[in-house]
Write a structure and sequence with these properties.
- This protein has one domain: Lipoxygenase-1.
- Helix content is 8%, strand content 55%.
- It contains 2 helices and 13 strands; from the N terminus they run E-E-E-E-E-E-E-E-E-H-E-E-E-E-H.
- Strands 3-2-5-13-10-11 form a 6-stranded antiparallel beta sheet.
- The radius of gyration is 17 Å and the shape is elongated.
């Protein structure tokens, strides 16, 4: 028997989402390492996406939260001021019952679907279609200690 098999840790995720909208609700999806764990529409009240997954240790993982249905018609500008808009807000991220706090902000990146839009660091309020991304590694607790 070979000892080359990776060790796994089971992590539970709880992601708090809310929205700003005036016409249609934002559609979202939540992915981990490319696998979709949840999709739905978000309203103004805080709602949670929860799932657990086994992850191999000593590997990097990628959490993605996507806004998927915004069009130019969802943003109304009057006298150079936005009067109506659609946003998907990432209010909280808990992994194994530990709230990431500012880590969800500090280590995040937003990748827009539109290649003309600039990628942004430290973005938890999604105003364009695209992906909030947070990379972390396993064992999670070691990664957390290194990034606090």
């Amino acid at each position: 028997m070979s000892d080359n098999q990776p060790n796994f840790e089971t992590l539970s995720f709880k992601i708090g989402l809310s929205a700003v909208y005036w016409s249609k609700k934002p559609k979202y999806s939540v992915l981990l390492n490319g696998t979709k764990y949840e999709e739905g529409v978000c309203d103004e009240s805080l709602s949670y996406v929860e799932f657990s997954v086994d992850l191999p240790e000593d590997r990097e993982s990628l959490l993605e939260i996507r806004l998927e249905n915004k069009t130019n018609a969802d943003t109304i500008v009057h006298n150079n001021e936005i009067t109506h808009d659609m946003l998907l807000n990432i209010d909280s991220i808990e992994i194994d019952e530990i709230e990431l706090g500012t880590i969800k902000w500090d280590l995040s990146e937003f990748i827009a679907d539109d290649p003309k839009r600039e990628n942004m660091k430290q973005c938890v309020n999604l105003g364009w279609n695209g992906s909030y991304r947070l990379k972390f590694s396993s064992p999670f607790y070691l990664w957390l200690l290194e990034n606090m």
